[in-house]
Amino acid sequence: MMMLNLSAALGLLAFIPITVNASPAITNNCIELLVPVPVKATNIEYDIPRVHDTISAVNWAVNVTTWSNKNYAARIIRNVTISQTFNIHAKLCVPSVATSKSSTIQLLTAGNGFDKRYWDVEVNPSKYNYIDAAISKGYSVLAYDKLGCGKSDKPDGYTMVQVPSEVEILASLTRIVRSGKLLSASEILSNIKSTELLKKFNVRPKKVLQIGHSYGSVLIQALLAKYGDELADGAILTGFLVSSQATANNVAHFDHDYAAESDSSRFGRYGPGYIVLVKATLQKLFFRGTSAGFEKKLLDYTEKIKQPETVGVYGSEGTLSFSPAAGYSGPVMTMAGEFDYPLCNGDCKGAYEANYTMGLFPAGTNNFTFHLVPETGHALTLAKSAAETAQKMLDYLEDNGL
Ligand SMILES: *[C@@H]1O[C@H](CO)[C@@H](O)[C@H](O)[C@H]1NC(C)=O
Ligand SMILES: *[C@@H]1O[C@H](CO)[C@@H](O)[C@H](O)[C@H]1NC(C)=O
Ligand SMILES: *[C@@H]1O[C@H](CO)[C@@H](O)[C@H](O)[C@H]1NC(C)=O
Ligand SMILES: *[C@@H]1O[C@H](CO)[C@@H](O)[C@H](O)[C@H]1NC(C)=O
Q: Kind and range of the H or E element at 31?
């Protein structure tokens, strides 16, 4: 029997000419964290039907959209003060090789119906995975599960998970990241030696970029309006635009099941007020109606990773009024798919309210840019155009010195 002598083998290798790339490929290193995030916010209790099974979920959607019924502003019962700490699940990824950009961290906030995997697509990652694309340019990335989805806490679906509390979660999480104390504040869920942890992952970011999709972009706009330059050096709001067709579709057009009943093995832990989109709706809402812009396996993947949403979020979106982010002076790019159904009723050309959207970022120094992604629906990272979209985003950051 032949024994392989390791040192001999290594010695042999030493004489084999090895082609070394001038710059080694940058791959990602990731760890998972549970971050206790302290939050103070004022949410609202709305007079809306209770949702505890699929019949009552449909009843809710019809009730809140019937034209002659009260709008959300007229349904306000009282303020609900939130003052507590939520456990937020996050994934921190850093480049394998330190770069000039590794002290710039991209904080990724997904939209309604998705957890952080929206940015971390496991199907054909070289094409669809935004985290990989950002890391390969040298950035560090923190993606998190919003409150009420993924592996984060899932509190009461009526009054706890709403725009105000989610804006404050993002604010609080950003402060922890900016302070350089993310690791010490968190429970480290990945199995990693503490020396390696500190060596690789102790990110002390000089810059924080807020990157969102859809509802995540809405949260970021509200964050910038409230906190200005304090919590962002740059922002990209995808799946975000103000359109003349924006109200043409409403929640009743997007069928939801009661989450716990629709799939008890996946969503059994979700309580009252949590609903989840049915598969046909995922296609309508996130992809183009035609299959020209997407691959079927990505629709199947979306069904696999879809996340519950709360009726509280819909209520708080119903009383949300955008305020201009007057105190924010960093760069802002907004982008949307050309054939976005929920934002533009299927066609954003001519429906885009450019000057209204620009008006949300009035500082004048922020190099506001809007990009319409051709042949694409609402879910940009899941469309055939995903790689070009990621490139466009990263180019914008680069061009703006970020
Ligand atoms: C809609 O829901 C509200 C709040 O639960 C209830 O007061 C109202 O009667 C409902 N309206 C209809 C038409 O079901
Ligand atoms: C609810 O809170 C808002 C601020 O978030 C405040 O303007 C409003 O007066 C409060 N309403 C009540 C009834 O306390
Ligand atoms: C742009 O904004 C101005 C002032 O707010 C408004 O009068 C005008 O109609 C808007 N233009 C478009 C194309 O929406
Ligand atoms: C604004 O952004 C564009 C890219 O969209 C870039 O080419 C340009 O240099 C930026 N302008 C400034 C003043 O940074």
A: strand 28-46
